[in-house]
Design brief:
Shape: globular
CATH class of the largest domain: Alpha Beta
Structural class: alpha/beta
GO cellular component, one term: membrane
Oligomer: single chain
CATH architecture of the largest domain: 3-Layer(aba) Sandwich
Distance between the termini: 23 Å
Order of helices and strands: HHEHEHEHEEEEHEEEHEHHEEHHE
Number of domains: 2
Organism: Alcaligenes pakistanensis
Radius of gyration: 19 Å
Strand order of the largest sheet: 2-1-3-13-4
Family: Belongs to the NlpA lipoprotein family.
Largest sheet: 5 strands, mixed
CATH topology of the largest domain: D-Maltodextrin-Binding Protein, domain 2
Membrane topology: Lipid-anchor
CATH superfamily of the largest domain: Periplasmic binding protein-like II
Protein name: Metal ABC transporter substrate-binding protein
Length: about 280
C-alpha cells in the first residue's frame, strides 16, 4: 500500500509562488509512454491545474524519442525510464539530460501461463527476456535470483545473454521486444514482465501472481523524472514533482495500475544524491 503525505497542496501552493514570471505562463511539457505511467502523470496534471500549473502530457510510442525530444528542447521533462536506461542513453547518444527526482519503483516478475511454479518449468523450455540491453539485464538478473541461470561474475546491470555461464535446465532464452513480452507469455513457458503491462492487457489476475519478483529496494530501476541538465532548477518541475510524489490521488492510481506491485519514492528536492547522471539517486 502506498502512503502519501497529505501536505501536497501546501507544497504545491508554496512552489507556485516561486515560479519565475517568464515561466508561469508557459505550460510544462512532460513526455511519457502510454499506459500506467501516463495514467499517473495525467492524475498529477489535473492536480497541478488546480493550483495554477498548466501541464501538457505528451505520449510517445517508443523508448527513444522521449529523450531526443527532451534534449532538443521540445519537452521540459520526461517520465518513463529508470537510471540504467538513462545511463545507457547518455553514453550512446551524448544527451545532456539528468535525473532530477524519483517517481516510482515498479517490480518486475517472472510470469507463466503454463506452469504454477518455477520447479515445474521443464528442461529446454523457452524463456522470454527483453531485447533492449538495459531491461534484458534486469530480466537475466531475476532469472539468476530464481536459480534458473548463472551469470558471469560482476556483469550486474550490463548483463546480456552472452554472459550466461550456467544453465542447468538448458533453457532457450528468447529475446522479445519489451512491450511484446505480455503477448509472448501465450507462447513461451516463462517471460519477464512488469505487473502494469499485464494489468493494461486485461490480465490483472496474472499481474499479481508472478512466480518470482524482483527486490523492492533496487532503486537503480526506479522510474525517474528527467530534465535537461541546464533546466534542473526549473521551479515548474519542482512543483510538479512535489504534486506527483505527495498526491493521494496519484498514489491510488499507481496502486490500481500496478496491482500493488510498485512503490512511490520521495527524497528531499535536489539532494546531493542527484549530483551525477551516472549515479543513481
Amino acid at each position: 500500500m502506498l502512503f502519501a503525505r497529505l501536505s501536497f497542496r501546501l507544497l504545491s501552493a508554496v512552489a507556485a509562488l516561486g515560479l519565475a514570471g517568464s515561466l508561469s505562463a508557459a505550460p510544462l511539457k512532460i513526455g511519457v509512454t502510454p499506459g500506467s505511467l501516463a495514467d499517473s502523470v495525467a492524475v498529477a496534471a489535473e492536480e497541478a491545474k488546480q493550483v495554477g500549473l498548466e501541464v501538457q502530457v505528451i505520449e510517445f510510442t517508443d523508448w527513444t524519442t522521449p529523450n531526443t525530444a527532451l534534449a532538443s528542447g521540445d519537452l521540459d521533462l520526461n517520465y518513463f525510464q529508470h537510471q540504467a536506461f538513462l545511463d545507457h542513453a547518455v553514453t550512446e547518444r551524448g544527451y545532456t539530460i539528468a535525473s532530477v527526482a524519483y517517481g516510482l519503483l515498479p517490480n518486475i516478475g517472472l510470469y507463466s501461463k503454463k506452469y504454477a511454479s518455477l520447479d515445474a518449468v521443464p528442461d529446454g523450455a523457452s524463456v522470454g527476456v527483453a531485447n533492449d540491453p538495459v531491461n534484458q539485464a534486469r530480466g537475466l538478473l531475476l532469472l539468476q535470483a530464481a536459480g534458473l541461470i548463472q551469470l558471469k561474475d560482476g556483469v550486474g546491470a550490463q548483463a546480456s545473454i552472452n554472459d550466461v555461464t550456467g544453465n542447468p535446465k538448458k533453457l532457450q532464452i528468447v529475446e522479445v521486444e519489451g512491450p511484446q513480452l505480455v503477448r509472448a507469455a501465450d507462447d513461451l513457458a516463462l517471460v519477464q514482465g512488469y505487473p502494469a503491462h499485464f494489468v493494461n492487457a486485461g490480465q490483472a489476475e496474472l499481474a499479481s501472481n508472478a512466480l518470482q519478483y524482483s527486490t523492492v529496494d533496487d532503486l537503480y530501476y526506479a522510474i525517474r523524472f528527467v530534465s535537461r541538465s541546464s533546466h534542473r532548477d526549473d521551479s515548474r518541475i519542482r512543483q510538479f514533482v512535489d504534486i506527483y510524489q505527495n498526491s493521494p490521488a496519484v498514489a491510488a492510481q499507481i496502486d490500481k495500475s500496478f496491482a500493488g506491485d510498485a512503490k512511490l519514492y520521495s527524497l528531499p528536492w535536489r539532494s546531493a544524491k542527484y549530483a551525477s547522471i551516472t549515479q543513481a539517486p
